[in-house]
Structures are given as C-alpha cells and as structure tokens.
Amino acid sequence: MINFFREITFFIISPLCLITAFSAAGLWLLYSSKLNSAKLMISITFLSLVIFSQSWVSSIILYPLEFGFTDESEQLETPEFIWTPACYYATNGSVPEISRWNECSLQRLLQAKILSEQHQIPIILTGGNFLLDETVNYAIKAQELLISLGMSADGIVILNEGTTTFTEINALKRSFADVKILAVTSATHQKRVAIMLADANIQAKVKGVDFKSSGELKPFVTMPSASSLDNIRKAFYEYMALLKYLIFGN
Questions:
Q1: What pLDDT is attached to residue 23?
Q2: Rounded Cα–Cα distance for residues 153 and 176 (Å)
Q3: Going by C-beta distance under 8 Å and a sequence separation of 6 or more, which residues neighbour residue 98?
C-alpha cells in the first residue's frame, strides 16, 4: 500500500503529468473550436517538454539537493558504525537476484561495505516489510547481499524495521543514540537524512551516492532525454518530502 501511494505521488508531481495535462487542455480547446487558445496551449506543451527533457535543467533543479547540501554537524573523530537507510528491492517477477535491486540500493550498500572495510566498523541495516511482497524483509535481504559479496555476518547489525526514513531513524535512535554514525544515502536524500538525524540527537555525518546529475551549472544543450524527466520527478518528490518533514515533523 505504501508503494502504491508513493507511485501515485510520483506520477502526480512528475513533469510528464504536467505535460499530459497541458496536452489534454490543448485538445479540449481544439475540440471547443477555441483555436487561438488551443495553439497557445499546444505551444506551452511543446516548450515544457523541450525544457524539462534537457539534462541541464534537471541538473539545475537537482543541484540544491545533491551539491548545495552542506553537512553542518561537527566532524566525527572516528565513526563507530556505518548506517544506510533502505531503498528498494523487487519481489515480483522471475529475474536474477541481482536484478531485483534498485540502483540506489546497490550504491548505498556497496558504498557502506567499502566504508566498513576502510574504517573496520560494522554496518547497521534498517528497513522492514514494506516491499510488494510484505513477507520479505528489506534489511534481511540487504544482509544476504552483503554476505554474498564477502562480508562477515558479524560485521552487520540488523534492525529489520522501519517503512520510511523517519521510522528507520526512530529505530536507529532506540538502539544507537549514543554512538557516532557515518550515514550513506542517495545524494538527493542526504539533506533530509542529515536534518532527521540531527533532530533525533544522533551524532552523524552523511555521505551521498547515486548522484543524478554532474553538478554542472554552465548551460549546455543536449538531445531531449527521458532520464531528465525522471530525475526532475525524483527531485520534486524529495523537495515535497523535505517540506512535509519541516512542516509536520514526520
């Protein structure tokens, strides 16, 4: 159910939904014989598609999330744990195990493994039963992946609960409130994670992965890109989630 509402939200706030609405309005005006208004709306639709499908435009929208973020928490002397929040794992279909993992899940988990080996400290995994198949637990699947990549089970701590970032951090706070944590999450997600960790009084630094843009602000023109539309959708979702947290606190 959580994933259903998430997908509905993703669609509503996506540039493609806006473009579709403009197209429908243009067709309605054309059907109503309001030719001048129809031409204007069709022009707006075309212009919106051209603008939102440009990689530079998506980079500008993503920049405050991915590169404008500054972790203002004090520098950790030495982290005691690596923590990475859940992303997604597909439970449907007949595909190889590795293909079930979302890109953001793989990047978060692999970076966490690298940092764990670098600092010689354990990884904390959170994430409960929020997947399409609610009998499958995300954190347990993440543990299985890390073990298959050579990690020892002794170096992995499972907190197999939490269906949102907020509830995952609550689970983290109950068991690890007094330790120094190095958090690994998606670049678009890092600002919200840092704010939530600070509000939970958890000493943490945040490292971003899974960047959706290069951080290039100098204008450039490319062929229209479907990935730009999707990246803008993800940016809009994160801005809305951040605003929701700042207003409602969850």
A1: 84
A2: 19
A3: none
